[in-house]
C-alpha cells in the first residue's frame, strides 16, 4: 500500500539482518521481528554513490555500512551488478585512504567475494600488490594486516598463478614475523596463509618450504609460544597445527612408496653400513685374508644376525613398499644416532637361541609400516581434524626419533613375551597397541612418551585386555537374558531423558563452507519444555549463550524428519570430487514446515552427532538409532545386571526355573496376629 513500494524491503531486526526476498520469505518464523527499510537495490545505489564521495565522513560511513550489508547475498548481488567492486578496487589501488576507511573497504571486499559471484582471478596485479604491501609493511594497523592476510589466504587456492604471485611477494620470513606477534588473531591469519601456501604447493615446493621453516626452527617456536602459551589454543589454530604436522609427516611418503633398487650403489652402501656398524671388529680383518666365497658367506651370516629373512640378498626384504626405503632410513638413523643401543640390540639377539632371537631388520620393516599407519602418512589432510601431537613440534626428526624409541620397545616386549619366530605377528600386534594407547594419552614430549610406553609392558597390556573383555562379556543364562529384556524399556527411557537434557544444554556448531573452513560459530539448544529449538550466530569464546540471545527458532511440532550423511542438502552441494568423509560422518539436517527448508548441522565430534541425532529422533517420536545408544544401553544393562546378581556370585544359574511345589493340604501353619495382641 506504500507509494513506490519497490523502494522498500523488509529486513530481520536481529542477528545478521538479512533482507526478506521471495526465495527466503517462507523461512520467517513466528515471533521474528522485521523492520521496514530501504530496498537492497536502493541501498546499493546510495552506497555506490557514497563511497565515491569527496566528503571523508560520508565516504567512511558508506564503507562501514557497506562492510556490514555485504554479508547479505541479495544486497551483494545488487552492489556487484552496479560494478561496485571496481570502486573498491580503485580505493585500494589509489592507496590514498588508510586506517579505519581502508579497514572497512577490505572488510566489504572480503564479504562480497565470499558469495562467489566474482572470480578471484579477475583481480588486477596492482590490487594484489597493494594487499601484499599491507602484509609486508610494519607501520600498518593490525586489523588491516589481518584482513589482508585473510584475502591472500582465500586467493591462494583458487589458481596456480595467484599462488605463485603470493608466494613470491610474501616471503616465509615475513609470515614468520607475523607468527611472532602477541596479537592472537594476526598470528592465526598468518598461520592460515602459511597453511594455504603449503597445501597449494607442488611436492618439490613444499619440500623447499618445509626445509626453510626447519632452518628457522618453526617447530620449537610453535611448541614454546603457541602450544604452551598462556592463552588456550583455539579450534582454528589446532586445525592448522594438525595440517602442518600432516604435511610435514607426508614428506616421508616418497621414501615410503619407493622400493629398494639392488643396483643403486648409494642404497647398497646404506645397507652395508648397517652390517659394518654392528660387526665392526669382525669386519676389520684385511681383505686378502678370506677368499671372495668365504667373505660372501660371512656377510650372509652377519645379515642373518641382523634379522633379514633373505640373508644372501637382503635388498629383497626392502622391496615391499610401503614401507620401502623409509624402513632402511630408520634403521640407518638408529645405527648412527644411537650406536650403543643398536649394537646392544644386535649382539644381545645374536647370543640367544636361534628361535628366541628378535629379528632387528624384519621388526624394523614391520614397525615402520605400523608407524606410517598410526600417523596416517600418505593420507590427505582432513578438512576438520584438530588432533595433532604436541610432542611432534618439540622434536626435529620426529619420525626417526619415534622409531628409535619404538624399536627398543619391540626388543623389550619380545623378551617379556618370551617370543619365538612364530610369535612375530603377535609381538608386533602388542607393540602397535602399546604405541596407540600411549599416543592417545597425548604426551607433550618424546621423553614422556618413552617413559609411558615402557611402563605399559606386556603384563599391563594383558590386564587392560582382560578388563576390557570382562566389560564386554555378558552372562548368557536364559533367566539373565529374560531379565535384560525386562530392564531394557526402563533404561532406554533413561537414555532418552539424558539425550533431551543434552539438547537443552545446547552445543556450539561451526559453519563450514565448500571453499574453506569458516571461523563463524552458531549455537543451538532445546527449550526446557522440549517444544522449541532455539538457534543463532555467536561470537568466538561464548560457551553457553542464554536462550533469549538465540533469535531463530523452530517449533518441534513443525519438524518433519531428520536427514543424516549423504542425504543432507549441505553435503549434496559439495562436488563429489571434494566430498569430505569427515564432514559426511558428522552432518545432519532437520526438515521443517515444507520439505525444501532445512536446518543444517555439522557436529563438532562423533559423540555430539550421536547425542543430537538421538535427541531429535526422540522429539520426532522415533527410535534412537546411533551407535552411542547401543553402547550406553549395554553399559547401563551390564551395571544393572551386576548389581542385581551380586548375591548370586559363584552360584550357577539354571536355564529352567525350578518346579513350583504343590499347595499344602491345609494352611494351619499361618500365624494369627489378632490373638497375640490380646
Automatic annotation (TrEMBL):
Pfam families associated with the record: ELMO_ARM, ELMO_CED12, PH_12
Biological processes per GO annotation: actin filament organization; apoptotic process; cell motility; phagocytosis
Superkingdom of source: Eukaryota
Keywords noted in UniProt: Apoptosis, Phagocytosis, SH3-binding
GO MF annotation list: SH3 domain binding
Matches recorded under InterPro entries: ARM-like (IPR011989), ARM-type_fold (IPR016024), ELMO_ARM (IPR024574), ELMO_dom (IPR006816), ELMO_domain-containing (IPR050868), PH-like_dom_sf (IPR011993), PH_domain (IPR001849)
ELMO domain sequence ranges: 266-439
PANTHER family referenced in this protein's UniProt entry, alphabetically: ENGULFMENT AND CELL MOTILITY, ENGULFMENT AND CELL MOTILITY PROTEIN 3
Physiological role: Involved in cytoskeletal rearrangements required for phagocytosis of apoptotic cells and cell motility. Acts in association with DOCK1 and CRK. Was initially proposed to be required in complex with DOCK1 to activate Rac Rho small GTPases. May enhance the guanine nucleotide exchange factor (GEF) activity of DOCK1.
Protein name: ELMO3 protein
Amino acid at each position: 500500500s506504500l507509494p513506490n513500494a519497490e523502494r522498500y524491503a523488509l529486513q530481520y531486526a536481529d542477528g545478521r539482518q538479512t533482507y526478506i526476498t521471495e526465495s527466503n520469505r517462507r523461512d520467517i518464523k513466528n515471533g521474528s521481528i522485521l523492520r521496514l527499510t530501504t530496498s537492497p537495490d536502493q541501498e546499493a545505489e546510495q552506497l555506490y554513490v557514497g563511497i565515491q564521495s569527496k566528503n571523508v565522513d560520508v565516504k567512511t560511513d558508506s564503507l562501514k555500512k557497506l562492510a556490514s550489508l555485504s554479508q547479505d547475498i541479495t544486497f551483494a548481488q545488487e552492489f556487484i551488478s552496479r560494478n561496485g567492486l571496481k570502486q573498491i578496487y580503485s580505493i585500494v589501488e589509489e592507496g590514498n585512504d588508510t586506517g579505519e576507511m581502508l579497514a572497512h573497504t577490505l572488510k566489504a571486499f572480503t564479504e562480497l567475494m565470499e558469495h562467489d559471484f566474482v572470480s578471484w582471478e579477475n583481480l588486477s596485479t596492482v590490487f594484489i600488490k597493494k594487499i601484499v604491501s599491507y602484509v609486508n609493511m610494519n607501520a600498518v594497523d593490525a586489523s588491516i594486516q589481518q584482513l589482508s592476510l585473510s584475502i591472500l589466504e582465500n586467493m591462494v587456492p583458487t589458481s596456480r598463478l595467484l599462488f605463485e604471485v603470493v608466494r613470491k611477494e610474501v616471503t616465509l620470513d615475513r609470515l614468520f614475523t607475523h607468527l611472532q606477534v602477541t596479537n592472537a588473531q594476526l598470528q592465526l591469519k598468518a598461520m592460515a596463509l602459511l597453511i594455504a601456501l603449503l597445501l597449494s604447493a607442488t611436492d618439490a615446493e613444499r619440500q623447499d618450504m618445509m626445509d626453510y621453516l626447519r632452518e628457522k626452527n618453526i617447530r620449537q617456536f610453535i611448541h614454546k609460544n603457541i602450544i604452551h602459551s598462556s592463552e588456550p589454543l583455539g579450534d582454528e589454530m589446532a586445525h592448522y597445527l594438525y595440517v602442518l604436522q600432516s604435511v610435514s609427516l607426508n614428506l616421508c611418503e616418497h621414501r615410503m612408496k619407493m622400493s629398494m633398487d639392488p643396483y643403486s650403489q648409494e642404497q647398497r652402501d646404506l645397507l652395508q653400513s648397517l652390517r659394518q656398524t654392528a660387526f665392526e671388529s669382525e669386519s676389520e680383518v684385511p681383505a686378502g685374508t678370506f677368499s671372495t666365497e668365504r667373505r660372501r658367506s660371512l656377510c650372509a651370516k652377519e645379515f642373518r644376525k641382523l634379522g633379514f629373512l633373505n640373508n644372501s640378498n637382503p635388498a629383497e626384504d626392502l622391496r615391499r613398499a610401503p614401507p620401502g626405503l623409509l624402513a632402511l632410513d630408520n634403521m640407518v638413523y638408529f645405527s648412527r644416532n644411537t650406536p650403543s643401543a643398536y649394537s646392544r640390540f644386535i649382539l644381545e639377539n645374536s647370543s640367544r637361541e636361534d628361535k628366541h632371537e628378535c629379528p632387528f631388520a624384519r621388526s624394523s620393516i614391520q614397525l615402520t609400516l605400523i608407524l606410517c599407519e598410526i600417523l596416517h602418512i600418505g593420507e590427505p589432510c582432513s578438512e576438520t581434524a584438530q588432533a595433532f601431537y604436541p610432542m611432534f613440534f618439540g622434536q626435529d626428526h620426529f619420525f626417526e626419533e619415534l622409531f628409535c624409541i619404538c624399536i627398543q620397545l619391540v626388543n623389550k616386549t619380545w623378551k617379556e613375551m618370551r617370543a619365538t619366530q612364530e610369535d612375530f605377528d603377535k609381538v608386533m600386534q602388542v607393540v602397535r597397541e602399546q604405541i596407540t594407547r600411549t599416543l592417545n594419552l597425548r604426551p607433550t614430549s618424546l621423553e614422556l612418551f618413552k617413559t609411558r610406553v615402557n611402563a605399559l609392558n606386556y603384563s599391563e597390556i594383558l590386564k587392560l585386555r582382560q578388563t576390557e573383555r570382562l566389560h564386554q562379556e555378558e552372562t548368557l543364562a536364559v533367566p539373565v537374558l529374560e531379565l535384560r529384556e525386562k530392564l531394557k524399556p526402563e533404561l532406554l527411557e533413561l537414555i532418552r531423558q539424558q539425550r533431551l537434557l543434552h539438547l537443552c544444554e545446547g552445543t556450539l556448531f561451526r559453519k563450514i563452507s565448500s571453499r574453506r573452513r569458516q571461523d563463524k560459530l552458531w549455537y543451538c539448544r532445546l527449550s526446557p519444555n522440549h517444544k522449541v529449538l532455539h538457534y543463532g550466530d555467536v561470537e568466538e569464546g561464548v560457551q553457553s549463550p542464554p536462550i533469549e540471545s538465540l533469535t531463530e527458532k523452530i517449533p518441534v511440532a513443525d519438524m518433519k524428519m531428520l536427514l543424516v550423511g549423504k542425504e543432507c542438502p549441505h553435503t549434496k552441494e559439495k562436488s563429489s570430487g571434494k566430498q569430505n568423509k569427515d564432514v559426511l560422518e558428522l552432518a545432519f539436517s532437520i526438515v521443517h514446515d515444507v520439505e525444501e527448508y532445512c536446518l543444517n548441522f555439522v557436529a563438532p565430534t562423533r559423540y555430539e552427532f550421536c547425542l543430537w541425532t538421538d535427541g531429535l529422533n526422540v522429539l520426532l517420536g522415533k527410535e534412537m538409532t546411533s551407535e552411542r545408544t547401543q553402547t550406553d544401553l549395554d553399559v547401563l544393562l551390564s551395571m544393572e545386571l551386576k548389581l542385581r546378581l551380586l548375591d548370586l556370585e559363584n552360584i550357577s544359574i539354571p536355564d529352567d526355573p525350578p518346579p513350583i511345589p504343590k499347595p499344602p493340604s491345609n494352611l494351619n501353619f499361618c500365624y494369627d496376629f489378632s490373638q497375640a495382641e490380646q
